[in-house]
Amino acid sequence: MKNKKAMLFVVLVVIAILALPVANLIFKPQPSVALSSTASGDFVTVAKILDAKCAMCHTEGETLPFYASLPIASGVIQADIESGLDHLDLASSLSSEQGQGLSEPALAMIEYTINEDRMPPTPFLAMHWDGALSSSEKKTILDWVAKVREETHRSGNAADEFANEPVQPLPAEHGQDPVIAALGDKMFHEVRLSGDNTLSCASCHGLDKGGTDQAQFSTG
Prior knowledge:
It is built from 10 helices and no strands. The protein is mostly helical. It folds into 2 domains: 13-162, no CATH class; 173-220, no CATH class. Helix 2 (43-53) packs across helix 8 and helix 6 (104-115) runs antiparallel to helix 8.
């Protein structure tokens, strides 16, 4: 009798555990702040993927699963959303209908996350069995990242094989005023700007070292 009760208890626990992810497949909440509703051009397909796979934690005000208000689950889900929004808020970052409002750091973050299979996280996939990005979806997003980078962030000074790198060479010309540039160079090396007339900006930020002292810790 005890074995039957124990087995029944185990079966009920398994059913309860499986009920939530199965419910997510059947009663899928629709995005309340759909990126795809205002998207156009090449961004339409990308926006649909982001709506389906990313928006729940990376867009404020999204419709959550029915169990999001339950004890324990509520705290876990809200913590995930806050963490997701801290890293990247898609709705506020994508300022244009073509999705070209993203900064280079945001593009690099999306690119790295997809290349390294960092998102969606495992706990999310445990509850959302259809939440993983397919190979074709990854390619679609990465192709879009490369296109946006080409159109809005490429400096034009990199060789073709490095054209899609997140860090681009600085332009040789900025349209700067040579007089102001000369003044800036003089001030950068001027020790009289320090309290004891011994240090300049260049003392710690040598341009021959990329503007840093390359030390692990500050020496003051």
